[in-house]
Amino acid sequence: MNYLFLFSLLLLVFACSKTGYTPIEDVPEKDTLTTRVLNGANLYAEEIDVLVAFLWPERISTDDQRKKVAEVISTSRQIRKEKEAFLSRRLSLKNQFEAADCRCALDGICEESDTEPDYDLCEEIEENIYKNNQSLVTFYQMVEDMKALVEDVGGEWLKSNTDYPLRPLSRFSFSDLKMRLEVFGDYHHEEETLPYAYSVDAMELKQKSDYQLLSFTFPRNDFRNGELIDFGQWEVEVGITPSEATLTFQGELRWRHQGRERLGIIYWENPRR
Amino acid sequence: MRSVILLSLLFASPSTWASGLVTRYQFLSAQGIPQGVWTFGVNHGRSVSDGNSYASSGQQMSNQNFFSRNINYRHLLDEINDPLEKELARAAFGAYEKDNNELAGRVVNDVEVEQQANTYILGRGITRRISLLAIFPVVTVRTRFESRFVNGASLEQFAAQLRQEGQYQRADEILEKSQNALSERLRENGYRPAYPSEVTSLANVHLNLRFDAHSSNSLNIVTDSVLIVPAGKKADVDDFIPLRMNEEQYSLRQGITAAYRPTDGLGVLASTYYHKRFPFQKTRRIPLNEVSPLSSDLDPNTRIQYGDTYGLGLQINYAFSDTWMVYGGRGMEFKDRDSISGNRYASSRYEYLEKDTQQQLTLNYLGFAVNTISAFLAQKFIIPVDLNLQYAFSSAGKNTFANELIALNMMVFYK
């Protein structure tokens, strides 16, 4: 009887185990809408003014690399500010030029008007336009500095129209969300270097709470043994910032190939018409 | 007053946290089981939290304050598993002048724990002086847990700066990641994306050899030599809230209890015990820093020795008759710091697991008991049973919950 009692007790005790789990829920992401309309795009030119793209190194392990990566980030912030300031001044000067009818004063292209254009003012405006354009030298030097830093830390800098000034400008078509990249990296063939060019047809545009997000993918090419072959895929996800002078796209660039992934940055601008 | 045979035991329902101190049923007794008599008992205890805990300083604070942590930028970097992303984030923090030790935010954790124990006791008087008891506690622990990250002013300013510079995704990523910090971290580090909200398990087996060292009309002294056999649910390395019910290693507890009866009906009992624990090896996740226990770094050979515990108790009984008794008591318990070490990672990381494992608890309890053994022997009652109802609460502690407990203990005897 006692052994039966003990057996029953042990059976009861050991049959009791159970565990119930409660999941940890994610805070739901704010709703985003897919849209085909890029806000305010009609104010901007479809030609891309400047494009910067690079991949970070596969690993960052030395203090020297860390220092240079921090410099790249600081320089990229400075480049953005400088370019925005340049474009803002350019727009302002353009408005001043038109308001003062300087095409008439300086170039003799006049329309019927009751007032005479102010030649001295127009000369001053033209001088300021020249000085503003000179500031581009600083801007492009900063881009070159950044390129040197990226390559120094083991990253990959992608050539753009700036390196191939005779090529047609890359274009972003706002109405149908398509892009033509005339220069996006380059390769050596025989004794010359040639740019990779891509057409991007399928893009996704999302409306977030206070900005728009553009994302797209396209295959990466590689030139080997005399032919272009598939070399993985480019993935781009950029936030869009409209300002008075420019429509700026900036964000992440990724290259995926054979299970590997490289991270990078991409940035381009469409200036105001 | 003829002595009332109170065949309850120096018995306390086992702690929810194997080796940890919690508010639990305590009743001092210096009686053994008569030779040849069997006893079977059930203790049902239920503890509830008043929403507070005792910090390492002894100060009582809300559970939220106790379990919440400030997070700086260095901690945010520690949370990033991918080495390249970590370096890029480090460089970005530097470029935006965020110091590693600057406050980024606070992880606010709301934790409530309730425990219920059904403990089964089987005992027998082996000889006139020796009693043997086997105790099988089945514990249910219910946990409620919520966690959120509250952005600090610095992080909000960082995100605003990023937005101003057109880096909307980076700003969103920082804010969204911080809101889902816990679930992201659990996923990245291979944890179960859930916590054990209700666990029922056997919590070790206690084999108690009670020896009647001295017995007289006014004074009884007994010793309790207990072997704790590890049993029940072990902490799962994939649970980010580890409920340790299983001691995971054999341990020994030695106690001594003296009961002095100065007058009829009045009893004064004093007790002390020491619980010795031994080291063992087990797989543990080794934290990266002092604020977050989450880590994907596993050491299968982590050497663990839970801290020894020891305590003192004082209880006063007053028996109105052979049947009715009231009592009150206080116990003070102490637990040494756990010792955790290993060779796979830096020793400082193992020390994070030892933090706040040193404990203290002062327990107070009141109760009344009904014992029908005398009435049964006088054929005035149908069964010999001892019923005991107790209310216990903590009044001081360190690194423990401030809980209250209601328990009902019932023992039956037969030969």
Number of strands of chain B: 19
Please bin the fraction of helical residues of chain B.
Answer: 10-25%
Helix count, DSSP H or I runs of 4 or more residues of chain A = 4
Order of helices and strands of chain A: HEEEHHHEEEEEEEEEEE
Largest sheet of chain A, order of strands side by side? 2-10-11-12-13-14-3-4
* Discrete helix count of chain B: 8
Structural class of chain B: alpha+beta
Task: Say what oligomer this is.
Answer: heterodimer
The major pleated sheet of chain A works out as:
8 strands, antiparallel
Radius of gyration of chain B: 26 Å
Largest interface: A-B, 48 and 44 residues
Mean pLDDT of chain B: 89
Q: Tell me the β content of chain B.
A: over 45%
Content of β-strand of chain A: 25-35%
Task: Tell me the Rg of chain A in angstroms.
Answer: 28 Å
Major beta sheet summary of chain B: 12 strands, antiparallel, barrel
Helix and strand pattern of chain B: EEEEHEHHEEHHHEEEEEEEEEHEHEE
N- and C-termini, Cα separation of chain B = 25 Å
Biggest sheet, spatial arrangement of strands of chain B: 3-6-7-8-9-10-11-14-15-17-18-19
Number of strands of chain A: 14
Which structural class is indicated by helix and strand composition of chain A? Answer: alpha+beta
